[in-house]
Design goal:
Elements: E1 2-6, H1 11-21, E2 27-32, E3 39-40, H2 48-58, E4 62-65, H3 74-94, E5 100-106, H4 130-143, E6 149-154, E7 156-158, H5 167-181, E8 185-188, E9 194-195, E10 197-199, H6 200-212, E11 217-221, E12 227-228, H7 229-240, E13 245-248, H8 285-293, H9 312-318, H10 326-338
Parallel strand pairs: 1-2, 1-4, 2-3, 4-5, 5-6, 6-11, 7-10, 8-13
Antiparallel strand pairs: 9-12
Helix pairs in contact: 1-6, 2-3, 3-4, 5-7, 5-10, 7-10
Length: 341
């Protein structure tokens, strides 16, 4: 099976590449913007015609898109997360290769959830920031393309190589600095947030399974269990051998503004959560503009205080279950951080 992997040098893409290369039946070609890609191509600026010619020449059976941006303004996120996917879909429609598309989406497309609930694939998406908006637009392009395609909505990926800007990456770095300086007290904010952390190597297994399956539509990839960041911090402290105390910084709320309940507050503190369960109709252009133009958000990912995946579809349609528990993921995150002490 010939596979074209887009974004092989990203956090998720590296593990997907490793997983595919371990399959002797896979012939892998990596496409990306970097010099180490097999083929250099910028999806955000390249033409669908050029990519179509490449697809016709290589004739892959599967195209996997792990590329995208997680940071930046609305224009940059739209360019790398939405326009890029539009280019892929247009090229696949023009090409005669008939490839299956596996698109990596994210839980930020759903936005905040009711505490205690599990989010299934049929939940109405309500992204709380420009990143989720850009990824949701990409998902809609894939689902409306008429292609043989599946979108994997990955919840909170963790494990070795976790970006320093992610919650657990920031936590590991803060603990490393505290241990390096001999600080017996670690002050952190936002420890009350709860997320469904899934190991990046399990995500790679899910991508591999999706590429071989006939599943279409949206499939959640998570563990089905939300973990409070405070509890993850305690596990990380135990794994790291940090004997100091952990204190959550209580940051005062900013003023509330009724016109956009998610547009204000500190990244570690909930704001306007009374609106989480309210009914929502189709997003208007004004609502989408508001979602992309009014930072800061109460949570950097726009997902509120709680997210937990309903992962039954992944089990039933992909035959996939997570294997790596959070403690093992945190131990591997710490091993990388400890190397810098």
């Amino acid at each position: 099976m010939r596979v074209l992997l887009i974004g092989a040098n990203g956090y998720l893409g590296r593990y997907v590449a490793d997983r595919l290369l371990a399959d002797p039946a896979v012939q892998l070609t990596a496409l990306g913007r970097g010099d180490d890609a097999d083929v250099r191509f910028d999806l955000a600026t390249g033409s669908p015609g050029a990519l179509t010619r490449f697809l016709d020449a290589v004739h892959p059976g599967v195209v996997i898109n792990c590329a995208g941006a997680t940071r930046g303004g609305a224009r940059e996120l739209t360019r790398h997360n939405t326009v890029a996917v539009a280019t892929i879909c247009e090229s696949l429609r023009r090409s005669g290769c008939g490839a299956r598309l596996v698109q990596l989406g994210c839980a930020a497309e759903y936005g905040p959830s009711q505490p205690g609930s599990s989010t299934a694939e049929d939940a109405v998406p309500r992204p709380g920031g420009p990143y989720g908006v850009s990824k949701l637009a990409a998902t809609e392009l894939v689902l409306g393309s008429g292609l043989d395609a599946v979108v994997l909505r990955v919840f909170s990926p963790v494990g070795p190589g976790t970006p320093a800007g992610s919650p657990l990456g920031r936590l590991a770095e803060a603990m490393r600095r505290a241990m390096q300086s001999g600080d017996g007290e670690l002050k952190l904010s936002g420890l009350g947030v709860q997320r469904d952390f899934v190991d990046v190597r399990d995500v790679a297994r899910a991508v591999h399974a999706a590429s071989l399956s006939a599943a279409q539509g949206v499939v959640n990839i998570g563990t089905g269990r939300a973990v409070r960041l405070r509890d993850a911090a305690a596990v990380l402290a135990r794994v790291a051998g940090y004997g100091g105390s952990l204190h959550e910084i209580d940051v005062p709320q900013h003023g509330q503004h009724a016109q956009h309940p998610q547009a204000h507050g500190h990244p570690g503190r909930p704001a306007g959560l009374a609106a989480i369960g309210s009914p929502r109709s189709e997003a208007t252009a004004e609502q989408l503009a508001a979602a992309t133009a009014q930072p800061p958000y109460p949570y950097p990912d726009g997902c509120g205080a709680w997210q937990q995946a309903d992962v039954r579809t992944a089990r039933d349609r992909l035959g996939w279950r997570p294997r790596i528990n959070l403690e093992e993921s945190l131990a591997d995150i710490w091993m990388e951080a400890a190397c810098r002490i």
